Amino acid sequence: MASVQQESIAVLLRLIRKKKLWQDPERLIEDARKKQQKGPAQPADKIKMRVRVERDDSLGFPVFTFRPNSDDSSSDRRALYLHGGGYVHDFGPGHFKLIATLVERTGLTVVAPGYPLAPDHTWPDSWEAVVGLAPDQGEAPLLMGDSAGAGFALAVAETLAAEGRHPEVILISPYGDALASDSRTAEYDARDPYLAAVGVRAVIGAWAGDDDPKRPEISPLFGSMAGLGRMLLFTGTRDTIHPQAHQIRDKAQAEGVDCRMVVADGCIHVYPLMPIPEARRAMDTIVDFVAETAAADPAKDADQHPPTGQ
To answer: Is 301 a member of any domain?
Structure first.
């Protein structure tokens, strides 16, 4: 059962008719284009008080690096975080808060690119650059993302796995299939006060451009997950793309990946980014996962891990 705080957010989303926007793809994309005109999102000053923030524009788009304030951090490990927003929206305050909390609690250094957005940009415009940002320190790369960013992170992870690098992945409410073709999608769409399947297909279609939306770089569910390291996946049961989380988990386990899926009953899309009790529990789980990953032998072949999940 969802918390009172989560229920309140769901009620608010209905009151502001958020789903109506996602049910009108043309208006959804035009609204996103107008927001993009304000320029790249920036971490608020209160985030910069919590962690050190650096910005690099050398790739043609901003890449933020978040480091612990303390110079005696117990970890020198890096992670790549790819933000969600349907490939049409930039970072939101929730992304920066989650990253700051993660840095504070784990000592990780987190690299988070503000990659160019659809509809004016498509996936090839940033693909190679983002793949190049994946940590490479002689250890299993750690990739994270939420929503569309989780799909992006998984696609990059599949590419790294094909190179024998066994990346670890943490996925929050991930996209996996640009077509949202699972037969259960309509059932969950009816429950969701936020997303709508027609809007999901439209924004990922804009990200695909003229390319086949089933390309693994766009729809990682159609790629190979063999060789991935451990996977941690979060999903709520009041989310239009909840079935995709199950598909990703099932495919990962079928291909020998140690995947744990955390299902939050009654929670909506990207619930771990919200100011709710379920999000705090999700962060505890992420912190534990990072600690376990850091303690693991990076040379150990990922396909030796037995599949787990719930």
So the answer is: no
